Amino acid sequence: MITEATRERFAALGELVAGLGRGGGRWLVLTHDNPDPDALAAATLLSLVLRRAFKQRVTAAYGGIVGRAENREMVRSLHLKLSHVRHLSFKRYQRFALVDTQPRTGNNQLPPDVQPDLVIDHHPVRKTTLSAPFLDIRPTYGATATVLGEYMLAAGIRPTHATATALIYAIRSETQDFSREFTGPDKAIYDLFFPLANHVLLARIQNPRLPLSYFGDLHEALERLESVDSLILSHLDEVGQPDIVPELADLLLRMEGKTWSLCTGYYRDRLYLSIRTTNPRADAGGLMRRLIGRRGKGGGHGRTAGGWIDAARLATGGERARLQTAIAAKLAVELRKKPDKMTRLALRPAEKELPAAVAEPAPPPTPASAGAEPSPAPAAAEVPAASTGGANAAATANDEKPAASAPRPATALRQAG
């Protein structure tokens, strides 16, 4: 269950910590902003390894918000101990670690003038990462948490039910139940930790209660669908939280006949973008960086990518809409599709105009009734109470006055009883 790469890296981590000496300083483990389950689990597990295996003082923290309902439920149900950076002072920490992110990528709160001591990630390595004293970058892995799961095994740390559940959900969500970008170690660690997970809490995390804003964003996204060939996309105005953008990009990719999806949405002063594809040979991360250019930050894997563009100077709704349209057009060109062919996608086809109603002819008499005398009109007492108008009409047809107090029908008596 422990790969040779992990054995080597874990031994190197031990040498790094030993070189710091006793009281080498307090560690701050940082995730990327708006952390997902993989980042939350990775930060939790690395903190545990540093604390238990190397006797270090550690704080795990994040920037942005834990926005998605599943992620909030994960933190709440598993009692994950992560602090927001606004409650911390960087001056209190002497050692810094990054998980599921890398230095100077624009998606974490590590100051640009601070060199991290440790970087563990599963995204493609950046040039700025190579100068870190310790790095463990594994782009072939489906989740960063998988690497930390192996570190726990190398350290001889038995996971609690909470840490096992966090790891299981991280791998499951990052690989979408092993439907994308996973490798053998992901499945091996998943199978090993699965029996130790709390499956009641896991079900609670996967099926959380959703706020009204979620349905508002979903409704807006579906009302704004656009498509050209195999590309489906949707642009949102202000969203309730940035995690809804990748969530909707995942959803749109499930549409029949679509192999690429893009979702964009504004949160505060940034336009967030998410790209998804079913093409296993794609480079969605590189594509995202080309779309954004120098206007923001972005990256990702082969089939998933995300990023943001600084939109603080866009004062009007028209300017914001034009930026989204330009991004969509550029993506279409990158995918060799024609932007001018992009059209709105109706959720339902237009209803055809129904023909005017035509009176149906009376059915021909049946042989049994041919030549038979018409039956007499029913007595008023035989007509249900709800049809008193019909009873009066029947009485008039027989030149009889309606009874002053007709007996109640049997059905009415049964209901009353």
Characterise the protein shown here.
It is a single chain. With 417 residues, this protein is α/β, with parallel strands linked by helices. The chain has 2 domains: 4-206, inorganic pyrophosphatase (n-terminal core), CATH 3.90.1640.10; 213-344, Diaminopimelate Epimerase, Chain A, domain 1. Helix content is 37%, strand content 16%. The chain has a 7-stranded mixed beta sheet with strand order 11-12-10-9-8-7-13, with helices on both faces. Strands 3-2-1-4-5-6 form a 6-stranded parallel beta sheet, with helices on one face. It is globular, with a radius of gyration of 33 Å. The protein starts with a helix and ends with a helix.
What would the keywords be for this entry?
seven-stranded mixed beta sheet, 2 domains, inorganic pyrophosphatase (n-terminal core), 13 helices, disordered C terminus, 417 residues, Diaminopimelate Epimerase, Chain A, domain 1, alpha/beta, 13 strands
